[in-house]
Amino acid sequence: MSATTAVEMPEIGATGLTPKEVVQRIESGQSNAVKTSSSRSVQDIVRANVFTLFNGIIFAAMVLVLITGSWRDAVFGFVIIINTGIGIVTELRAKRTLDRLSILVASDFLVHRDGRDVEVPHNEIVLDDLLWIRAGEQVPADGQIIQTWGLELDESMLTGESRTVRHKVGEQVYSGATAVSGMALVKVNAVGSHSYAATLTAQAKVYKKTVSDLNKGINTILKFMTFLVVPLCILLILSQIHTVGGWGTALSTGEWRQAVVSAVAGVVGMIPEGLVLLTSLNFAVAAMRLARHNTLVQELESVETLARVDALNLDKTGTITDGGIAFNRLVMLDSANAAAEQAATQALYDCCNEEQPNGTGQAVLAGLKAQGYGAGAVESRVPFSSARKWSAVRKSGETWYMGAPEVIISALEGDYSSVLQQVNEYANDGNRVLLVARSTAPLSEGSCRQKRLRDAVEGANVSDGPQLDVQAEPVALVLCSEKIREDAERTLAWFREQGVRCRVISGDNPVTVGAIARRVKLTGDHEPVAMDARELPEDVNELARVLENVDVLGRVLPDQKKAIVKALHTQNHVVAMTGDGVNDALAIKEADLGIAMGNAAPATKAVAQVVLVDSKFSHLPDVVARGRQVMANMERVASLFLVKTVYSALISLGVVLTQIPYPYLPRHITYIGALTIGMPAFILALAPNTRRYIPGFLKRVVTFALPGGIATALSVLLAAWVLPPVMGWNVTGDATDLSALRATSAIILFAMGVFVLARVARPLNGWRGVLVAVFAAAGVIGAFVPFVANFFALILPTGATMVATLIALAGSALIFALCLWLAPLVRGLTGKLSRRH
Predict the structure, then answer these.
(1) What is the dihedral of CA 270, 272, 273, 278, to 10 degrees?
(2) What is the three-class DSSP state of 819?
(3) Out of 154, 315, 350, 592, which one is annotated catalytic?
(4) Pair 9, 129 in one domain
(5) Given the DSSP bridges, would you call strands 380-385 and 321-332 parallel, antiparallel or unpaired?
(6) Edge-to-edge, what's the strand order for the sheet holding 390-395?
(7) The domain spanning residue 469 has which CATH number?
(8) Is the bond into 763 cis (omega within 30 degrees of 0)?
(9) Does residue 557 sit in the same domain as residue 585?
(10) Higher pLDDT, 285 or 791
(11) What sequence ranges are listed for the domain P-type ATPase A (predicted)?
């Protein structure tokens, strides 16, 4: 409970709600309880990850193979379990985070009911309650102030404004704000889901799946393959039944099983199952690496989004600044000697050295302690009050005042406009300015009655309290500023070099924010353009045009932050948004990538995809670099997987059209794919790569994969068409001859896979060359290991078959070289034709 509980509460005239009225409101649902609804049910999450297009195709193919009894040819089905498990675990983590979302701190609050003050839990506050808001408490419900004793609120978590706000009678206060000082009696006018904080929470809790360009590309491939898979699978089964003598023979001899297995070999080859699995695993590995640097990735797909970011919106407080105040220096107003400056500095220290100094006082004390100052002898003191805006000490026959310049100067006789001008100049440069004044008159303590009330509730009616001496003279200005993070300037420089446009969006005064942007060199050597958000247009397209020429925005409301993100989206920008307050939550959710600081509000952290646990802005370059590594490498390995899709589709088509037995088994493609695609791809995916992502993933991948896929398909089909008549093989009636053809086809497939791997892994100097050599050797050695050879049906050719295989391999190499040579010519010709049209 707050320390103010023991304070004698001021007397008020109202009696508050009666117990009967309270019960009526609770029964009618007008209490402060908020129904906690789950973001997405476990059932929905499981259903979404299990019943996918990819899983359906693989599962159906696996069932068909298992029906035939050939379980060794069904090992490809394990990828469903692994990939689905990763997806479910990831989304369950996000669900738990969202379900715990709460902006308000649950505790007991003091309400005035039936003529007396009683403590009630947060959920039992009802509509029309008379609620006490005391220093140190978070406002639990929206209300209107009916009496105030110097209430001052920190609304930074709601508005982004770092300065505290003093409220008057009749003004509205919102749930989620924190009382810094003073006290007020508030009539509650919005509770539960209707309160401001609950409204923000409800909007933030709506589940939003991160859109992954990589996953979109893979899904496009899967959708395209679906149109081919079903009819092609049926045609493959029919063609394989035909090769064994028709349905009657197939059913009587059991050859239908081999026909189904052969058909599935074509289907499975067309599905880049390893790519789907590797994408999830690579995202997970990147997330684990970032976690070691105190960066929590809450949605795996967001790692890829990092690579595409070209617009970064930064909240000032908590991102560029750490939310604290730093003492800069003391500026003497008149030419003074060292002794006068030392006396003023010591007086400043003593004025701030209260029992419970506020944030600015603590910053001044810390700064002066670092200069060697300590507590001096003080005869009497008037502590700082947010109502008075000044404090004072009496020492050595002099009275020293310290506080807000405009308040102190307004109470003095004489013209001090030049001092106020200096104050404004320093303030426009981003400083918080205090004034130190000196007087020889005794310190005014105020009346005993006011002193007692001030002790109980700080800052009531200042006209009856301590008074400033009108003859006091301004001596010095105290310059403080928000503490800028040490890493802010170099981090912003890195983003400029990488072509990422950074903007500072804050609820603070645009002049103050602009000054801080200059200090951290937001726009390098150029002066940042600052603007008051109250002048922004409401039309989203007009807003987008204005934003192109603005670097700093101040006085930004939460809805405006969200609108700014939407406006940038209209210009096809990939937007990242950082923040720590509740006022940032909606914009962070709207952005392509939401980044929250570790000390952020729970609502903000819950909706962000990335959380910088130790709140260090300097982690962002690492985060972006990791995303670029993932995306650039996944584009490389996606090309590798798609080659298999292309040649499997073309081989299946060739088999159907020419009615020949399928030239290899599903287990062959499992073995070859693992050594030339799956395992090498995983290693390549983890290699260093800082290339910035460029849109057009799918087009580049398809363009790269077509030559290798076409060359591989032609090589296998030509061998299947030419070798049987040349070698005298009866592949439709003799199982041994069919096995010989499949052994040769598997060797050709493996050799072409090594060629494609070498092309993808370029340059082959260093470890990349070793990678290709190791997996090529592993494939050959595996064929000599009895268990491996038996399990995957690998047969080493001998005699005439060996000669034929070597000739086929030479032909395959020529076809591969020819396809690579023709590919750029075809692309160039296609480009010219498209430009003409």
Answers:
(1) 170
(2) helix
(3) 315
(4) yes
(5) unpaired
(6) 321-332, 473-484, 432-439, 398-403, 390-395, 380-385
(7) 3.40.1110.10
(8) yes
(9) yes
(10) 791
(11) 110-203
Name the band, by pLDDT with cuts 50, 70 and 90, for residue 207: very low
Instruction: Give the closest residue to 37 by CA, choosing from 123, 125, 107, 100.
Output: 100
Taking the mean position of all CA atoms in its chain, how far away is CA 19?
Answer: 47
One-letter amino acid at 587 equals A
Strand, coil or helix: what is 836? helix
Structure tokens at 380: 């009497």
Q: What is the pLDDT of residue 4?
A: 37
Pairing of the two strands 501-505 and 552-554: parallel
* Predicted local confidence at residue 779, as pLDDT: 94
**SS3 label, residue 632:** helix
* Three-class SS state of 760: helix
Q: How far is CA 811 from CA 117, 208, 312, 755, in A?
A: 94, 52, 53, 13
The answer to whether residue 193 is domain-embedded is yes
Number of helices followed by number of strands (H, E) in the chain: 30, 21
**Cβ–Cβ under 8 Å, residues 272 and 645:** yes
* Segments forming the whole domain that contains residue 12: 3-30+103-204
Q: What is the percentage of the chain residues whose pLDDT exceeds 90?
A: 25
Same domain, 299 and 383: no
**Section 79-102 average pLDDT:** 64
Reported as a single tens digit per residue, the pLDDT across 462-510 is: 445 688 889 999 999 999 988 888 888 999 999 998 889 999 998 777 8
Beta strand pairing status for 311-314 and 575-579? parallel
Phi, psi of 287 (to 5 degrees): -65, -40
305 and 404 inside one domain: no
Q: Give the integer Cα–Cα distance in Å for 154 and 7.
A: 22
Q: Which two tokens stand for residue 170?
A: 């009749």
Domain match, 524 and 425 both: no
∠ Cα 270 83 75 (to 5°): 60
Residue 108 three-state SS: strand
CB contact at 8 A, 95 and 45: yes
Q: If 0-12 CB within 10 Å is exposed, 13-18 middle and 19+ buried, where does residue 228 land?
A: middle
Q: Please state, in angstroms and as integers, the Cα–Cα distance from residue 728 to each residue in 277, 401, 802, 804, 811, following that order.
A: 42, 109, 15, 12, 20
671: nearest Cα among 789, 806, 770, 760: 789
Q: Is the model more confident about 282 or about 382?
A: 382
pTM of the model: 0.62
Rounded CA-CA distance 258/263 in Å is 9
279 shares its domain with 364: no
**Dihedral of the alpha carbons of 614, 616, 622, 628, in degrees to the nearest 10:** 100
Grouping H, G, I as helix, E, B as strand and the rest as coil, residue 332 is strand
| Band of pLDDT at residue 387, cut at 50, 70 and 90 | low
CB 163 within 8 A of CB 135: no
End-to-end CA distance of the chain: 76
Q: How far apart are CA 99 and CA 770, in angstroms?
A: 49
SS (H, E, C) 294-311: CEEECCCCHHHHHHHCCE
Q: Which residue has the higher pLDDT, 185 or 447?
A: 185
Please say if 315 is a catalytic residue.
yes
